[in-house]
Specification:
It comes from candidate division WOR-1 bacterium DG_54_3. InterPro entries: DNA_methylase_N6_adenine_CS, MethylTrfase_TaqI-like_dom, N4_N6_ade-DNA_methylase, SAM-dependent_MTases_sf. This is site-specific DNA-methyltransferase (adenine-specific). This protein is of the alpha/beta class and 915 residues long. It folds into 5 domains: 179 residues, no CATH class; 159 residues; 82 residues, no CATH class; 153 residues, Rossmann fold; 76 residues, no CATH class. It is built from 35 helices and 21 strands. The strands form 4 sheets. The protein has a 9-stranded mixed beta sheet with strand order 10-9-8-11-12-14-13-15-16, with helices on both faces. A 7-stranded mixed beta sheet has the order 1-2-3-4-5-6-7. Strands 17-21-18 form a 3-stranded antiparallel beta sheet. The chain is globular.
C-alpha cells in the first residue's frame, strides 16, 4: 500500500514524475518533463479547435518508452480546467489507434487497451485514464483520481500499487498487471462486503449480535422485516447524504458540511443518531429553512430542503417531531461506519457502461440495496432473493438492452433509418449531416416515449434508459432549443417556472433529467423498500446535476419531485378485470377526473400543499367508494373494481395487491418499451414457498403459463398486455423457455413478434448459476430472427434466421449451434427419437430423488410389458446405446442394467421420461 501522505505531497507534474520513478519504479531519468517526453501538437494530431482550447499550450506529451517494443503508450495531458473532458480523451485516443488516424498514418499506433493517459490541471488534482475495447468510439473509459483534501485510501490501496513497474515482467504480464489498476468491480465488491457487515450488525444477521433496538418491536420472527427495512433506510439515507458532501458550490462549500456528517462529527457527538442524524433527516432536509426549528446541527441553514419524500419519517422510523429514545443505535456503529466511508473515494459523476470512475458512484447505490433487499423473509425463512427470484442486472447488460430497445423504438417511431439511429444512440458517435427536421424528429420521439420496468427493483433499467436518452438529446439538441420551441408552453405553471429558471442558468442536463423522469419512465415492484430505493436513485441523479448557488434561496437547489405516481409498490401480475364497460364508466366519473388532476399536481408539491393534495386524493377515493355502493345493485363487477381501486394508497408504505397502469400512472394506451429482469421462480419453489394459491391465480389469469412454468413466463405475457401497438419488449430471463415444453405456448404465441435472441450465458448474475438469454419482442410482425452470442465483454452477431424455416413448437436453443446446417439435416431425417419413445423434460431435482427407490438392476430377461429401461446421459452415447455395457451412476449408486417397474413409474410420474 502506498502511504497516503506520500500521495498528498504530489503537487505538480515534476513531483508526480518523481513519485512514478521512486515509488512505482518507472524507468524514468531524473529530469524535467521536457527531457523525458515527446511533444505532439494539435496540428500534428489533427485535433479540433475545441479540443485544442481545453489543452494547456495545445500540447500532449508522450513519456519516452522504458524498454524497446514497449506495449504501453503513456501520455501526459494537461487541461486548462479541473474537468477532465471525456470527449477530448476520446478524440486523442483516435489519433493513436491503428487505422483510426486518417491523414497521419506515419504516427505511432497502439491498441486501445494499451494506452494510458495521465491527466492533470495545475495543482488541483490528477486523473489516470485507460480505455478497454477495440473500438475508440465505444471503448470503455475507466479513470481514477485524487484531489487536494479528498480521501485517497482507494487510490493508495488499490489503484496506484497496480501501476508498479517490474523490469522482469514479460510484455504480456506488464499489460495484464497495469490493467488491474482500473478494475472497478473489485472496488465495488469490496465496498459492498463492507457495507453488508454494518447491515448485519444492525439486524443481528450472519451471526452478529443485533445492535439496533427499536421501540415497541419484539424479537419474534414476524418483526424481522421491520429491523431490516429500518437498516436499509438508515444506510440508504446516510450514503445519499455522503454523496451530497461531494456536491459543492463554486466556492467549494458542500451541500452538507463535515461538521454534521463525518467521522469526526460522530466521535464528538454523544447519541449521534438522535442528536445529529435524526434531526438532519427529518427536521432539516425535509423542511424549508424558514419552517425549521432551532437545532444544534452546525450551520443547518446552508443545508438545502430536498422534498421528494426521501426524508419524510416512515411510520417505522418512530419519529413524530421528537426523538423516541426507545430507538437505540450505538455511537460505535456510526464511528465504524463513517470510518469505512472515509476510506473510499466517492464520485458524483454518474458512470455509464463506457465511462467509469474507479470510485463509489451513484450507480453503486443500486447494487448495494439490491443485495441488501435479498435478506430473510420472516414468513418463509427463505431469502427475499429466493422468494422473489430477483437478481441485480450488471451494468453492461442493462446498457445493451436499453440501447437496442431505444434503437427499435426509434426505427418504429421515425423514418430516420437504421444507420442514423445507430449514430444517435451509440456512445461516442457524431451526428454531422443530420438536418434540423431529423433532429426535431428525434426530440419529438423521445418526448413521447413511455417506458416501464414491471419488476424494477432498485431501478437499474430505468436509470439506464434515463442516461441513454440523455446521450441522444445532448447530441441533437444541446441547448434545448428544439425542445423549448415545441414544448415549453405546454408545461404547467410551477414546472414551467422551474424549467425557465434553469434555462437562464444553462443547466441543460438537469432540465432533461427532470423531464425524462416526469414524462417517460415508470416502475413497479412488489417490495415497497425496493421502490423507495429506486426513487432515491432518481433523486440522486437529479441532485448531482443541480447548480449550487450559495447566494440564492435554498442554495439554488430545486425541491425534488414527488414520485409516488412514477414508482409504485404493487403486484404486477394481478390486474384489474379487463372490462370495456368498466373503463368507460370510470372515464366519465367526476371523481376519476379529479384523481387524475391531483396526480399531476402532486409531482411538484411540498409542505402544506403536498399534505393537502394527499388529503384530497384520499377523500376523493372515499367518495368513489361511496359511489360504488350505489353501483353495486346495477353492476357487481364495477363495484368490485371500485373497491380494488380504493385499496391503493400511493402515500402509504404498503404494497398493493394489484397493478393497473391507467389508474396508477394515467397510461391508457400502453407503453413503448417494457424492459425487465423479471423474477426467476420455478413451479416447485413457488409451492415450497407457500405460494400455491398465488400460482393458481396467475395460471387462471394468463394463457401462456402451461406445464411447470416459471414465473417469468407470466411476466412476459403481462409485458405484452401493457405494451402498445408499436411497442418493444426486452427481458433477460433463464434460457429454459426457448426449448422446454413449458415454453411451447409462449413461443407459439410470440413467434411473429420475437426478432432477436442474445445468449448472455452463465455467470451474468454473481449469485445465480443460471444460463440466461436476452429476448427482444415487438408488437409488430418480424419475418427474421437475429441470433447473437456474447463473450469476452462483447456481443457478436452469429446469424439471421428466416422464421419460415422454423417448425412448431419453435424451439430456439439449437439455433446457437455452430453446426446448425447439420442439425437441420438431422431434423429432416424421416425417423426421429420421438417416433420410438416419449420424450419429456429432464427430471427436476425432487423427481430424481423420487425415482431412486424404484430403480433396480435387471437380474433376469427384460420384460417390456412390465418394465422400463432407465436411460440417461451415462447410458447413451453418440451413436450407440451403453445400457447393459457401461455402468450408470445415479445418486451414488451404480447399475449395469437399470430398470423400473412400469406400473409404479407411471403412477408416480404420469408420463414416461423415456421409453
Amino acid at each position: 500500500m502506498i502511504e497516503q501522505q506520500r500521495v498528498y505531497r504530489i503537487k505538480a507534474l515534476d513531483s508526480l514524475l518523481g513519485f512514478l520513478r521512486e515509488d512505482l519504479y518507472w524507468d524514468l531519468p531524473e529530469a524535467s518533463i521536457d527531457d523525458v517526453s515527446f511533444e505532439w501538437t494539435g496540428l500534428d494530431l489533427n485535433l479540433s479547435e475545441d479540443v485544442n482550447k481545453k489543452l494547456k499550450d495545445g500540447l500532449i506529451r508522450q513519456l519516452q518508452p522504458f524498454v524497446t517494443h514497449q506495449p504501453w503508450g503513456i501520455f501526459v495531458v494537461e487541461f486548462v480546467t479541473r474537468e477532465v473532458s471525456i470527449i477530448t480523451l476520446r478524440q486523442i485516443l483516435r489519433c493513436f489507434v491503428a487505422k483510426r488516424r486518417g491523414a497521419r498514418p506515419d504516427l505511432p499506433a497502439w491498441q486501445c487497451e494499451n494506452l494510458l493517459f495521465i491527466c492533470l490541471y495545475g495543482e488541483n488534482g490528477f486523473t489516470f485514464a485507460h480505455f478497454k475495447g477495440d473500438k475508440p468510439y465505444s471503448s470503455r473509459l475507466t479513470t481514477f483520481s485524487w484531489h487536494p483534501g479528498e480521501p485517497v485510501r482507494t487510490v493508495c490501496e488499490f489503484n496506484l500499487p497496480a501501476l508498479v513497474y517490474d523490469y522482469t515482467w514479460t510484455l504480456e504480464t506488464w499489460v495484464e498487471q497495469w490493467q488491474k489498476a482500473f478494475d472497478v468491480e473489485k472496488v465495488n465488491k469490496d465496498f459492498y462486503k463492507q457495507i453488508a457487515r454494518f447491515y448485519y450488525r444492525l439486524t443481528g444477521k450472519e451471526g452478529q449480535k443485533r445492535e439496533l433496538v427499536l421501540p415497541y418491536v419484539g424479537d419474534d420472527s414476524g418483526n424481522i422485516s421491520i429491523y431490516e427495512e429500518f437498516a436499509v433506510r438508515l444506510i440508504g439515507r446516510s450514503i445519499f447524504c455522503w454523496f451530497l458532501k461531494h456536491k459543492k458550490s463554486a466556492n467549494d462549500v458542500p451541500l452538507i458540511l463535515p461538521e454534521a456528517l463525518s467521522l469526526a462529527a460522530a466521535r464528538e457527538t454523544t447519541d449521534f443518531y438522535h442528536s445529529m442524524l435524526e434531526p438532519l433527516f427529518f427536521e432539516v432536509m425535509n423542511k424549508r429553512v424558514k419552517e425549521r426549528k432551532p437545532l444544534a446541527i452546525p450551520r443547518s441553514e446552508i443545508i438545502p430542503f430536498l422534498n421528494g419524500g426521501l426524508f419524510e419519517p416512515h411510520p417505522n422510523d418512530f419519529y413524530q417531531g421528537a426523538p423516541n429514545y426507545g430507538l437505540k443505535i450505538p455511537d460505535a456503529w456510526f464511528i465504524d461506519f463513517f470510518s469505512l466511508l472515509e476510506r473510499y473515494n466517492f464520485t458524483i459523476t454518474e458512470n455509464s457502461s463506457i465511462d467509469v470512475d474507479v470510485a463509489v458512484d451513484p450507480e453503486m447505490l443500486g447494487r448495494i440495496f439490491e443485495n441488501l433487499l435479498a435478506e430473510v423473509v420472516p414468513e418463509t425463512g427463505e431469502t427475499a432473493r429466493k422468494a422473489t427470484g430477483s437478481y441485480y442486472t450488471p451494468r453492461a447488460i442493462v446498457d445493451y438492452m436499453v440501447e437496442q430497445s431505444l434503437k427499435q423504438y426509434l426505427l418504429t417511431k421515425t423514418e430516420l433509418g437504421e444507420e442514423k439511429i445507430k449514430r444517435l444512440v451509440d456512445y461516442g458517435e457524431y451526428i454531422e449531416g443530420f438536418s434540423s427536421e431529423e433532429k426535431l424528429t428525434a426530440v419529438t420521439a423521445l418526448r413521447e416515449i413511455k417506458v416501464i420496468d414491471p419488476a424494477c427493483g432498485s431501478g437499474a433499467f430505468l436509470m439506464g434508459v434515463l442516461h441513454r436518452m440523455l446521450v441522444v438529446l445532448e447530441k441533437v439538441d444541446p441547448r434545448l432549443e428544439l425542445w423549448r420551441a415545441q414544448y415549453l408552453k405546454s408545461l404547467d405553471g410551477i414546472v414551467r417556472q422551474m424549467v425557465e429558471k434553469n434555462i437562464s442558468r444553462e443547466n441543460w442536463a438537469y432540465i432533461r433529467k427532470l423531464m425524462i423522469i416526469k414524462d417517460s419512465i415508470y416502475g413497479v415492484d412488489i417490495q415497497p423498500i425496493a421502490v423507495e430505493i429506486a426513487k432515491l436513485r432518481c433523486f440522486l441523479s437529479l441532485v448531482v446535476d443541480e447548480l449550487v448557488l450559495d447566494n440564492e434561496e435554498n442554495r439554488g437547489i430545486e425541491p425534488l419531485p414527488n414520485l409516488e405516481f412514477k414508482f409504485v409498490a404493487a403486484n404486477t401480475l394481478i390486474g384489474l378485470p379487463p372490462s370495456v364497460e368498466t373503463q368507460g364508466a370510470f372515464g366519465t366519473s367526476e371523481a376519476i377526473k379529479k384523481l387524475k388532476d391531483l396526480r399531476e399536481s402532486y409531482l411538484r408539491s411540498f409542505g402544506a400543499e403536498k399534505a393537502q393534495i394527499e388529503k384530497e386524493f384520499r377523500a376523493t377515493q372515499r367518495k368513489l367508494f361511496e359511489e360504488s355502493l350505489r353501483w353495486k345493485s346495477q353492476n357487481l363487477a364495477l363495484s368490485k373494481v371500485a373497491e380494488q381501486l380504493i385499496e391503493w394508497d400511493p402515500f402509504s408504505y404498503e404494497s398493493c395487491s394489484w397493478f393497473d397502469p391507467a389508474w396508477m400512472f394515467g397510461i391508457e394506451d400502453g407503453f413503448d418499451i417494457v424492459i425487465a429482469n423479471p423474477p426467476y421462480i420455478d413451479s416447485e419453489l413457488m409451492v415450497n414457498l407457500g405460494q400455491k394459491d398465488l400460482r393458481e391465480t396467475i395460471q387462471r389469469t394468463y394463457t401462456m403459463t402451461k406445464g411447470n412454468w416459471d414465473i417469468y413466463i407470466a411476466f412476459l405475457e403481462r409485458g405484452f398486455r401493457v405494451l402498445n401497438r408499436n411497442g418493444v419488449l426486452t427481458f433477460i430471463t433463464p434460457d429454459k423457455w426457448i426449448s422446454k415444453p413449458f415454453g411451447d405456448a409462449l413461443r407459439k404465441a410470440t413467434i411473429d413478434n420475437i426478432f432477436c435472441i442474445l445468449r448472455s450465458g452463465r455467470g451474468v448474475f454473481e449469485s445465480s448459476n443460471v444460463d440466461s438469454i436476452i429476448s427482444f419482442f415487438s408488437s409488430t410482425k418480424h419475418n427474421q430472427l437475429k441470433i447473437i452470442d456474447s463473450g469476452h465483454d462483447r456481443f457478436v452477431f452469429k446469424k439471421q434466421i428466416d422464421k419460415s424455416s422454423l417448425k412448431p413448437p419453435f424451439s430456439f436453443d439449437y439455433l446457437f449451434s455452430d453446426h446448425l446446417l447439420i442439425l437441420l439435416k438431422i431434423d429432416n431425417m424421416p425417423k426421429k427419437l420421438s417416433d420410438l419413445a416419449g420424450c419429456e423434460n429432464a427430471c427436476a431435482t425432487s423427481d430424481a430423488y423420487k425415482l431412486e427407490p424404484l430403480i433396480k438392476d435387471l437380474s433376469a430377461a427384460f420384460d417390456r410389458t412390465c418394465q422400463l429401461k432407465i436411460v440417461n446421459t451415462g447410458t447413451i452415447s453418440k451413436y450407440y446405446p451403453r445400457w447393459g455395457k457401461h455402468e450408470m451412476t445415479y445418486l451414488g449408486h451404480k447399475y449395469l442394467c437399470p430398470i423400473v417397474d412400469r406400473g409404479k413409474f407411471l403412477s408416480l410420474f404420469k408420463k414416461e421420461s423415456l421409453l
